Amino acid sequence: MLCAGKKSYFAAAVCIMTVTSMLAVSYLKLQRPSHQPKVIQEGRRCRGKIAISTITPLEGNKTFIISPYFDDRESKVTRVIGIVHHEDVKQLYCWFCCQVNGKIYVSKAKIDVHSDRFGFPYGATDIVCSEPKNCDPTHVSIHQSPYGNIDQLPRFEIKNRKPETFSVDFTVCISAMFGNYNNVLQFIQSMEMYKILGVQKVVIYKNNCSHLMEKVLKFYIEEGTVEVIPWPINSHLRVSYSWRFLQDGTHIGYYGQITALNDCIYRNMERSKFVVLNDADEIILPLKHPDWKTMMNSLQKQNPGASVFLFENHIFPETVSSHTFNISSWNTVPGVNILQHVYKEPVRNKVENPRKMIVDPRKVIQTSVHSVLRAFGKSVYVPVDVALIYHCRKGLQGNLPRESLIRDTTLWRYNSSLITNVNKVLSQTMLQTQN
Asked: Tens digits of per-residue pLDDT, 375-384?
């Protein structure tokens, strides 16, 4: 006996209390789910309804699941891309159902809200759970509790379970298309420039766009270039058109752009050598190389160990145009003709130009819009004499006189191929007015 030889009542009482405490602690440890998976049920089949929506709210509407991805770069985990309220969501659990042995495992999630939340109450979040060692689960459910009935929980397919060989070299991620987007001509020009530069796939997180734009997207989907991911985020949260929180009752910034970018990286991790993070009105223009493949081969040789390449943004105001390439048959198509905008704003003193990125997706853990938050490998600023971002949009420096702008006709190197390709698209989508 633990307390043998103790004659004092006081000593006996202390002994009893000690044993009771030890038993209580042991019991609580057994009952409290740890970050390691624990079997809670056996002999069950996985019956939960499989989620098919891009954005799935959990009970209480404080947690929204986008998609889970298998990630074994540091340890064997399921990394769920989601959106959570940074204060109200404190505990989540991953429920794994192993078809092989009929066991249901639960492990406590690590909730990692991304640091670039910009003051909004909801932010992009990694919900990370250790996987069972003796099975490779194909689906996972997320719940606020380690107890309950798994049959009542939505099941999410765990993507990236099987390694794939790269099907493409470059994938462009565009997030998010919203505001009844109708800049049709510039979108087609950007798409054709991407293809000229070596892009095989463009992934678009679409909230909404015009009827005309839908027609163009349909063309590119059927061509095999575009993949559209429905992005109905405003059905679940009050969204802001800005990245900055203005205490106006909105929940998340810029239509959840950061969440979409992170999902796009993981979605293409096993199928694309590089992922390009930019907007539809931005084109990374190489100055020393004919295309992106040649450029990236050179940059990787010069920067061994780099996984993130950042390109400086340069604004070409859409209000300042050249008469060159005023193609009359394009004038009936809504949107900007980028070939007519070859004057860029000068670099502002003491203001750092934002950057966009080409990344090795297998090395990125978390990304923001203009930089990565966590990655294996270093980030490299690409010199502006190697490449820059051609960004045709509303100017940022007011009404600068034309003589203050810098003429840059790099885009015109591609004019012949670009005009031919754009005309083909306009003709096949019946958007072009014949002369």
From this structure: 999 999 999 9
